[in-house]
Design a protein that fits this description.
Layout: E1 2-8, E2 14-20, E3 23-30, E4 41-42, E5 47-49, E6 52-57, H1 76-87, H2 92-108, E7 111-119, H3 126-137, E8 143-149, H4 160-170, E9 174-177, H5 185-202, E10 205-210, H6 221-231, E11 237-241, H7 250-263, E12 266-269, H8 271-277, H9 293-298, E13 302-305, H10 322-332, H11 338-341, H12 350-355, E14 372-375, H13 380-385, E15 390-395, E16 398-402
Parallel strand pairs: 1-4, 1-5, 6-7, 7-8, 8-9, 9-10, 10-11, 11-12, 12-13
Antiparallel strand pairs: 1-2, 2-3, 5-14, 14-15, 15-16
This protein binds fe (ii) ion.
The site of fe (ii) ion has 6 residues, from loops.
């Protein structure tokens, strides 16, 4: 299969990308526009990108908002209450059906790699067992990484450590954590040591919900980064949210950044979720409650955007479109200078792939899997400005999905 007349990010001119046996076999510069023949796919000068990536979502809670009751205040705390009501009715089939529907929504938007956090503070590990089946059943649409996520804590939940161990034994790919939610500072620190030991011993990646609060004294990021640095695991470790960094003073943050850089860890920000849930104890002036995305990026560290929720008790909107989150994130994080706009897709493609440790399984290079998306735009700038949709999604060298662009006719 040839994809002709493709614009590739960060390269000049038009290209033909050839796929054979599920892999990219050639990338050829074109002197001129080509006419499509046989089974050629004509990108018509539009962007051909490696698939969009969803690096942070909770597929076990998705599509439950309003069932049985809506979150009327919009707060995290009412979200927990509403989730408690819904949790009582959850079944294996219900979890699987909602996850499959959501994965389809993600795939419709050109996403082919997903990292989902799954709550393992449940003696039955029911949601995890459901998601392990979904990971296999949805393989034709996405590669799914499952994080063993201790929503109610590791140290402050009965048998929390054993449940984490069991979750990894059953097949979760990534070790999670939530140190700021543990009952004491000491428990937060020991939970990080425990989860890093577990990940190191089992060869797993790490993704910790870290300092997801406006409390400037929530400082578990330094503990996570130091553990990663000492163990040489930085590239395999991700700090999600780190919203407290938006409330740290600059003196502390400048010292922290030195450690963060040495550690080499990755960052995920979920700007729509954080702007919605954080800042809730403030009157005015009101904090944004989002981590320092631009500053992390400027310092040469790896940061990407995730959706976190789609229509769940904590966040009622969302439709699978990560470009919507990119748009919001660029606004919220003061990243609307043209240089940022012109490379904005990094935050939902290459940076996210690095966070997920996709390595040579990702990217438009000869020999890599033929997973490709044609976006209905010619550049990163136009993609985010026009909220471009995925026009064609190719997976393993086969067309997975095509979309007919909408047409507007004036009378
Ligand atoms: Fe999350």
């Amino acid at each position: 299969m040839n994809i002709i007349n493709a614009t590739l990010r960060k390269r000049q001119g038009l290209f033909t990308v050839t796929c054979d046996g599920g892999r990219i076999s050639a990338i050829t510069a074109q002197p001129d526009l080509l006419l499509a023949k046989d089974d050629d796919i004509d990108a018509a000068g539009q962007l051909l990108i490696a698939p969009l990536v969803e690096p942070h979502i909770h597929l076990d809670a998705t599509l439950t908002a309003g069932d049985p009751q809506w979150n009327m205040s919009g707060t995290l705390f009412e979200g927990i209450e509403r989730w408690g009501q819904r949790k009582a009715t959850i079944t294996h089939e219900d979890t699987k059906a909602r996850a499959h529907t959501t994965i389809r929504m993600l795939a419709e938007h050109g996403i082919q790699h997903v990292r989902t956090h799954i709550d393992v503070t449940d003696p039955t590990l029911g949601a995890l067992k459901a998601m392990l089946e979904v990971r296999e059943e949805a393989r034709h649409l996405v590669d799914l990484q499952i994080v063993a996520f201790p929503q109610e804590g590791i140290e402050s939940y009965d048998n929390g450590r054993a449940l984490m161990e069991q979750a990894i034994e059953l097949g979760a790919d990534v070790v999670g954590g939530i140190p700021h939610f543990e009952n004491t500072r000491e428990q937060g620190v020991s939970s990080i040591k425990f989860l890093m030991d577990l990940a190191e011993r089992r060869g797993c990646l790490v993704d910790v919900h870290c300092d997801e609060t406006d409390d400037p004294h929530s400082r578990f990021l330094e503990v996570l980064a130091e553990e990663a640095r000492v163990r040489g695991m930085g590239s395999r470790v991700t700090a999600s949210h780190t919203t407290a960094m938006g409330s740290y003073d600059n003196a502390y943050c400048s010292k922290l950044f030195r450690l963060l850089k040495h550690s080499g860890i990755n960052f995920v920000s979920c700007p729509t979720e954080s702007i919605h849930l954080q800042g809730r104890f403030d009157t005015f002036p009101k904090r944004r409650g989002v981590t320092r995305v631009a500053e992390i990026d400027r310092a040469g560290m790896n940061v990407c955007f995730g959706q976190d929720s789609i229509k769940d008790p904590w966040y009622p909107l969302g439709n699978g479109n990560i470009l919507r989150v990119l748009d919001a994130g660029l606004h919220i994080c003061h990243m609307m200078g043209f240089e940022d706009l012109a490379r904005s897709l990094d935050l939902v493609t290459d940076n996210s792939a690095r966070t997920l440790n996709l390595g040579e399984r990702y990217g438009i290079e000869v020999g890599r899997p033929a997973n490709l998306v044609i976006l209905d735009a010619e550049s990163d700038y136009e993609a985010v400005r026009r909220q471009a949709k995925a026009r064609v999604s190719i997976r393993g060298g086969q067309v997975l999905m095509t979309r007919v662009p909408e047409r507007v006719e004036f009378a």
